[in-house]
Amino acid sequence: MDDTTPALSTEQTALLDSRIDALAVEAIELLRRLVKTNSVNPLFPGIQREDVVGGETACGALLADHMGRFGFVTETVAPDPQRANTIMRKAGAGGGRSLFINGHVDTVAPFRPAEWIGGGPWSGTIRDGNLYGLGSTDMKSGLVAAALAASAIEAAGLRLKGELQIHAVVGEETMSHELGTTAVLEAGFGGDAAIVVEPTSQPRPLSVTAVSAGNFNLQIDVKGYGTHSGNRGPSIRAGGEGNAAGVNAVEKAILVVQALQQLEQEWGISKSHPAFPAGIFSMAPGVFHGDAGVPSVGYLAEAATIGYLVWYPPNEKPEDIRAEIERHVHHAAQLDSWLRHNPPVFRWESHWPVFDTPVGHPLVRSLVADRAAVLGPLPAGVAQTHSFNAVCDASFIAAKGVPVATMGPGDLRCAHAVNEFVRISEVTDCARILARTMVRWCGVA
Question: Model confidence at 1, in pLDDT bands (50, 70, 90)?
Answer without folding.
Answer: very low
